[in-house]
Design a protein that fits this description.
The protein is of the alpha/beta class. Helix content is 51%, strand content 19%. It contains 13 helices and 9 strands. The chain has helices spanning 2-11, 14-35, 72-82, 85-103, 120-124, 128-138, 153-156, 159-171, 187-191, 203-207, 213-228, 241-249, 266-277, and strands at 39-48, 53-64, 68-70, 113-117, 146-150, 175-181, 198-201, 232-235, 254-255. Strands 1-2-4-5-6-7-8-9 form an 8-stranded mixed barrel, surrounded by 5 helices. Strand 2 and strand 3 form a beta hairpin. Helix 2 crosses helix 3 (72-82) and helix 4 runs parallel beside helix 6. The relative contact order is 0.11. Bound molecules: ligand C2E and calcium ion (CA) (3 copies). The site of one calcium ion has 4 residues, from loops. This is cyclic-guanylate-specific phosphodiesterase. Residues 23-277 form the EAL domain. It is found in: Cell membrane.
């Protein structure tokens, strides 16, 4: 069987074989990386209309000893496919809570909310709720400091389960953002059933601003929708002043993107914030 397996691989495009090996190798190394602190969280500022920092989105990075900085697009899909996303997700939550504990001691950072990306698999895990609450207790941080970013992929399989779990976590104090809004299906049907705090306008709509009239229309409609449902709305991927100006004009209330700051390590994030505040 091994022989035929090998022959079969030869039958395919060699680049595919290389890709498969590369994936297996990365998965093996990622498992190791989570235990040896090669992974690190970067923090990207989220700001209000006055440019004041509201908090950050935590974005994972892998500082690979040979490959250098590996971006999540390269390893999150591998982690999802292998189930490693559960360990990775827990690692992210713990690192985030540890960071919030540090921020609690800084007057400038005390009220920041940290947004965390939660994968569908992680959200549905049996002990997700318990382990999340246990972490906030371990690090003595209020649940209100954490905002869980969910995409529609969390909702599609079992919407009733997702709604119940969200309501439970909401009652415990956690916040929710609906990530990549506008890119999935039937988002509108969910909106009124979910205990959301925020919707994130996907970067693909911000990209075309201010000139693309379709993107402009969609962006205005999403902002209006958020107003009608009493949700905060944040634009992601804001890269230019022109995009920022359009969004301000359209009454967007929160912003994230390279124009305001790139994802950065925690110490850099704090200096960035202090410089911003003029401290
Ligand atoms: P996302 O949740 O949509 O995160 C936003 C992505 O846009 C981030 O990419 C961020 O660095 C990038 N970004 C922010 N501002 C700009 C901008 O102005 N221009 C452009 N071109 N890009 C911008 P990143 O960090 O590479 O993460 C990619 C995706 O990987 C994330 O997309 C998220 O789906 C996933 N991811 C990242 N960290 C985690 C994590 O801790 N757990 C899980 N489950 N997924 C994660
Ligand atoms: Ca996100
Ligand atoms: Ca997003
Ligand atoms: Ca996106």
């Amino acid at each position: 069987a091994k022989e035929s397996g090998r022959n079969r691989l030869h039958f395919f495009d060699p680049t595919l074989q290389t890709q498969v090996l590369h994936k297996a190798q990365l998965e093996h190394e990622l498992r190791h990386a989570l235990q040896t602190n090669e992974c690190v969280l970067f923090y990207q500022p989220q700001v209000d209309a006055q440019g004041r920092i509201l908090g950050a989105e935590a974005l994972i990075r892998w500082l690979h000893p040979q490959r250098g900085l590996v971006m999540p697009a390269e390893f999150i899909p591998i982690a999802e496919a292998s189930g490693l996303i559960l360990d990775l997700g827990h690692w992210v939550l713990e690192a985030a809570c540890r960071q919030l504990q540090v921020w609690q001691t800084h007057p400038v950072a005390r009220d920041w909310v940290l947004a965390i990306n939660i994968s569908a698999h992680q959200f549905r895990q049996n002990d997700f709720v318990e382990s999340l609450i246990a972490l906030t207790q371990k690090y003595a941080i209020p649940a209100e400091r954490l905002k869980l970013e969910l995409t529609e992929s969390v909702l599609i399989d079992d919407i009733q389960f997702a709604i119940e779990r969200m309501h439970y976590l909401k009652a415990a104090g956690f916040g929710f953002a609906l990530d990549d809004f506008g890119t999935g299906y039937s988002s509108l049907a969910y909106i009124k059933q979910l205990p959301l705090d925020q919707i994130k306008i996907d970067r693909c709509f911000i990209d075309g601003l201010p000139l693309d009239s379709n993107d402009a229309a969609i962006t205005r409609i999403i902002i209006r929708l958020a107003q009608e449902f009493n949700l905060q709305v944040i634009a992601e991927g804001v890269e230019t002043q022109a995009q920022r100006d359009f969004l301000l004009e359209a009454a967007c209330v929160a912003f994230q993107g390279y124009w305001f700051g790139r994802p950065m390590p925690a110490d850099e994030f704090l200096s960035h914030a202090l410089a911003q505040e003029g401290v």
